[in-house]
Amino acid sequence: MSDALTSHVVIPGAWHLDFRHAAGPAASRFLTTVRDRGVLTASPCPSCGRIRVPPRDFCEECFVPTSDDWPDVGPRAVVEAATIGYTSFPGYPEPPYALVYARPEGADTAIGNLLQGIDLSDYHVALERMHIGAAVTAVFGDERSGLVTDFHWALAD
Q: Which of 52, 112, 115, 157 is deepest in the core (most CB within 10 A)?
C-alpha cells in the first residue's frame, strides 16, 4: 500500500462561538431560586416519586409533567463522581480545578459544579478527599446573578 493512501491530512482550525442559551421554564425557575433565595430546589415526579435536581419540566422515566411544588434540597450532598480538570475553558478557574457531581439530601439525582477549598497540589490526595461518597455542602455566593456558578461545593469535613 502506498504512503499516499495511508497518510492522514490534519487541517488546523478553531471555532469561537459566543451565544446565549434559553434555559427553559424549569432551569429558569431553578436558577432564579438559587439567585433570590440561595437554596437548591428539585422537581418531584407525581408518578414515580423521584425528586430531580436540577429540576426538569417532565420525568424522563414516566414522561409526565413534574409537580409544580418544588422542595428545597441540600445543602448537604454526597459526591457521586469527581475529577480534576487541567484544561483551560472560558468561565472556569485557571487549572487545576476540581469538579464534583453531588446528590443533595432530599434528591434522587445529582448536580455538577466546582469543588472549592481543596488543595489540588497532590492529585492522589485530592482525589482521596473528594471520593465517591464524600460529604459536601453547597455554598452560595453573597452576590448571585442567576447562574449555576452562584454556588459551589465544599467538602463538609
A: 115
DSSP 8-state class, residue 58: B
Fold of 22-155: OB fold (Dihydrolipoamide Acetyltransferase, E2P) (2.40.50)
pTM for this predicted structure: 0.86
In the three-class reduction of DSSP (H, G, I as helix; E, B as strand; rest coil), residue 155 is classed as strand
Answer yes or no: are the C-beta atoms of 94 and 88 closer than 8 Å.
yes
Give the integer Cα–Cα distance in Å for 146 and 21.
13
Three-state DSSP class for residue 111 = strand
Q: Mean pLDDT, 10 residues at a time, over the chain (157 residues)? A: 70 85 92 98 97 95 95 98 93 94 98 97 95 98 95 94
Bridge partners of residue 58, in order along the sequence: 65
In degrees and rounded to multiples of 5, residue 155 shows phi and psi of -60, 140
Domain ranges, ordered by start, for the chain:
22-155
Contact of 138 with 77, CB cutoff 8 Å: yes
Are the beta carbons of 42 and 56 closer than 8 angstroms?
no
Residue among 47, 45, 39, 46 nearest 76 (CA): 39
Report residue 83 as a C-alpha cell: 475529577
